[in-house]
Amino acid sequence: KGPKLWSKFLCMYKPSRNMIYEGLYYVHLMNWLCNYPSENIIILNSEEFYQNTSEILKQVYQFLGLQPLSNDHRNLITSFVFNKGSQTVLSHQILQKSDRKKLNALYKSFNKELMKLLTWDVDWK
Hints:
The chain is an all-alpha fold. It is 58% helix and 0% strand.
């Protein structure tokens, strides 16, 4: 299962507990797709989810085979803000331009493969 290139990634990138590995979304997704049928997996774009939460929630319910929520219930659920984060950004939390450039170079080929796999057009910079 999966593209021929995947076998190379599998042996090159062993699961570990580090942030760089966690950002290799293509590697993680291929692991899932190699072990589970694609029709059992729903992949959501978080930008779309935050912009159109109600519609995406409707798609998730449909994917799970659940009864659709009434408009009132869906509006109630989507009226709350979750994962808002902190408003204060500390100096050590700011990613330096040189580090961003290195990370972009590292992730570029993986993200390109991910976008092709998902047929998405997202420019992560």
